[in-house]
Amino acid sequence: MKLHCDIQLPASKSESNRALMIAAYGGFAPDFQNLSDSNDTFVLSNALREIQQNKSVIDIADCGTAARFLTTFLACREGEWILTGTERMKQRPVAPLVEALRGLGSDIQYVEKDKCLPLRIVGKPIEGGKVQIEMHQSSQFASSLLLAAPMWAQGLEMELLGELSSLPYLEMTLTMMRHFGADVERNGRTIVVRPKPYQSKSFTVEADWSAASYWYEMAALSDECEIRLRGLSLPSIQGDAVIVDWMKQFGVGTFVEKEAIILRKIPFEKRPLQFDFSAHPDLFPTMAATCAAMQIEAHFSGISNLNVKESDRLRSMKNELIKIGVEMNKIGDESVLIMPCSHLPSFDSSQPLLFSAHNDHRVVMSLAPLALRIGAICFDDMDVVRKSYPHFWSDVSFVLENSTEMT
Fold first, then answer.
1. What pLDDT shows up at residue 344?
2. Model pLDDT, residue 190
3. Is the pLDDT of residue 260 over 90?
4. Are 260 and 340 in contact (CB under 8 A)?
5. CATH 3.65.10.10 location in the chain
6. Closest to 148 measured CA to CA, from 127, 132, 119, 122
7. How far is Cα 191 from Cα 157, in angstroms, rounded to an integer?
8. CA-to-CA dists, residue 139 to 136, 162, 265, 387, angstroms
């Protein structure tokens, strides 16, 4: 299959959501270019508007970022609030953040299940001070506190505990805080934020490197490609830009143009590979699907927190890839070995392979490119991609309709 396309990628929801929180704390109107149109950013934006209107119950649906960021925001905003979400969101952890906020004097109670949403929050001014935060499950706990800290009278001195999971997302938070005038420095596991309020500045949100990973996967699975991805730049404050280096091992080269990158095939040696996802958990579905489709054995580590994402991503990918004969064998709690089959099955439009979405946008978008190798596929939920990439299906349909078969 020859793929030739020009794609305008969606804006980064991670950058967009941090920018929205900074504007909310700073009390200024957002001056942002290319704000994400993802459902996650819509949910956060809408919740901030409802908080301004003093609505007492804030429902953040399945948006984990909003759950973590707004826990701190509401804790230091006078009033009594209930923060809730979907059933899956009520299963995802929030305890490390709640305990840290309680240590700073916040009044937060669990309404239903211990350590999870819904939360009853009695907001009041927070002075700041010293705090420890567990990083193993999510870097968003630390980011939530840091985003608020410039507005606190004593600022914040934070010590990061445990495995430094998703550290690039924390670095993104610090970089964006500095852009808006915050006085913050990190020295190893210690971060100091001095009391210096945010300043209103313009900010352009970069295209989403996590979304780019699915086009890298399509490039890897194609026979020939010329895929232009607009809105990306290198270097990037997004950690998932590591996909550039990872995909070289699958024969995908990255060529930088002004305000875009181009993906082309390059020579590579097919061999067993190793990947550590502790800093890049959102790339796990992409790499698992790519290895499966290219019949490459791989050892994946840094996977211990995948069970607290939109789905249990290890289980979700294992359950779907077995449908094409690919097994993932867990090795303890920290790693898994993916064992591809010798021959991939083939499906046609009369009887497509049905994949389950597991209510997880990244699972769906990582499995979609498999159609390039196994033929017709379908999903039990197509709309879940709206969480981060609303026009994913229209982009993919256009590309496949305009691609050509190798002769």
1. 94
2. 97
3. yes
4. no
5. 2-8+206-401, 37-192
6. 127
7. 6
8. 8, 11, 34, 20
What would the pLDDT profile of 361-401 be if each residue is shown by its tens digit?
A: 999 999 999 999 999 999 999 999 999 999 999 999 877 76
pLDDT of residue 407: 40
**Tens of pLDDT along 339-355?**
888 899 999 999 999 99
What does the alpha-carbon distance between residue 323 and residue 321 come to, in Å, rounded to a whole number? 5
User: What sign for the dihedral angle of Cα 13, 17, 20, 26?
Assistant: negative
Are 375 and 344 a contacting pair, CB within 8 Å?
no
In CATH, the number for domain 37-192 is 3.65.10.10
What are the Cα distances from residue 19, in Å, to 30, 36, 309, 388?
8, 11, 22, 16
Mean pLDDT over residues 150-177, rounded? 94
Of the listed ranges 195-199, 280-284, 332-336, 367-371, the one predicted with least confidence: 332-336
Q: What is the pLDDT of residue 405?
A: 63
The residue from 282, 312, 348, 381 that is catalytic is 282
Residue 399's pLDDT is 73
Lowest mean pLDDT, pick from 58-62, 176-180, 397-401: 397-401
- 298-301 and 327-331 strand pairing: unpaired
Backbone angles phi, psi at 122, to 5 degrees: -100, 100
Is 312 assigned a catalytic role?
Answer: no
**Mean pLDDT over each residue of the chain, to the nearest integer:** 94
User: Is 2-8+206-401 in CATH node 3.65.10.10?
Assistant: yes
